Amino acid sequence: MTDFFGDIAPIRYEGPDSRNEFAFRHYDADAVIAGKTMREHLRFAVAYWHSFAWEGGDPFGGRTFDRPWYPQDTMEAMRVKADAAFEMFRILGAPYFCWHDLDVRPEGASFAESRDRLFEWVDYVQPKMKETGVKCLWGTANMFTHKRFMSGAATNPDPDVFAYAAATVKSCIDATHRLGGENYVLWGGREGYETLLNTDMGRERQHYGRFLQMVVEYAKKIGFAGTILIEPKPQEPSKHQYDYDVGTIYGFLKDFGLEGEVKLNIEQGHAILAGHSFEHELHLARQLGILGSIDMNRNDYQSGWDTDQFPNNVPEVALAYYEILKNGGLGTGGTNFDAKVRRQSIDPEDLILSHVGGMDVCAAGLKAAAAMLKDGELEKALTERYAGWDGEAAKTMLSGDLEQAAARVEAENLDPQPRSGRQERLENLVNRYVG
């Protein structure tokens, strides 16, 4: 084990009036909300990369953190890092964690050595998972950091890079399977382009589609029962990424016959970069039947890039969980904190408290969302707004043709008048639950 977190005791629920910063004010894991415990609804996961692999650097400066597993270039450091990670999971009571291969083990001198180091990490953490009860929500492959992937992975113009990406994903699916992971995620950080002057979008899109088909085929072959997920993002680091947003990915999945095989891991910050709200992306994914899991964070709205901050806006989070509850929950997915402390937050306590705050915000949002859904006022207003479409005349019109629809206007002397959308009333209604 490790003493990195010192004598920080496990975080307990103390209620909304608690003044103890090392306590939950809203997240009561065993409290039942809408038929399930908060633990079952929220399915919290800690992101291995931001919490343990990120060193606090930014484009203008190097690392600011000082961790006992730095430098992260030996297998001994891997073990120290894993010890610290599982100690934090225990303190938080987090039921899940998520990882990239590059987060958990150092790069080897060859692919085979990198793969073997990954499996050595798997062997090291499996007893810890059994001892603590912490599970793997999902694994994924980092195919954006190393220079070999500077022009993409599955979409790279070099077929040897495609092969390397396939081998990398295979090893990560194998590791996720061995850990009992409940999902596997693909994030195409460089599956896009910098300029069309050197890009054949049609060919790259075909290669990407075939790559995803190969992933699904392999997961089935080895008996991986988890969900395959894609994470949308419009740009950054690439100028344009093919996994732009929920609507774009759904069209892509339909093109390659994968709409019934793959779901989405939707991130709040990425939704904002795509010009949407988080609830927009969740709502659309729910309607299309591809809502799988979420990465919970937020961006700084004064910055035009992905700042990966912990959530602190209960109204926004409440609307997100409203969509999730209407979806029937997250299934095999969960709430992964793809969020990092600020580079000036250098103390071990900051890692704990950032997650405590994020978990509480999500719990408060969940409670508000469940209350809104139970009271049914929003659903009632929505039903009333579209009530005309439940009539026989409207149903007949939709099953007919354009001429028949047009004929109704004169036959029934139609003169439709505008009706209020009541947006402000509904916004006031939401604020009753989150205020």
TrEMBL record:
Its cofactor is Mg(2+). The keyword Ribosomal protein does not apply. It is found in: Cytoplasm. Mg(2+) 1 binds at E231, E267, D295, D338. One of its GO terms (biological process) is D-xylose metabolic process. One of its GO terms (cellular component) is cytoplasm. Its EC number is 5.3.1.5. The active site is at H100, D103. It is an enzyme of class 5 (isomerase). This is Xylose isomerase.
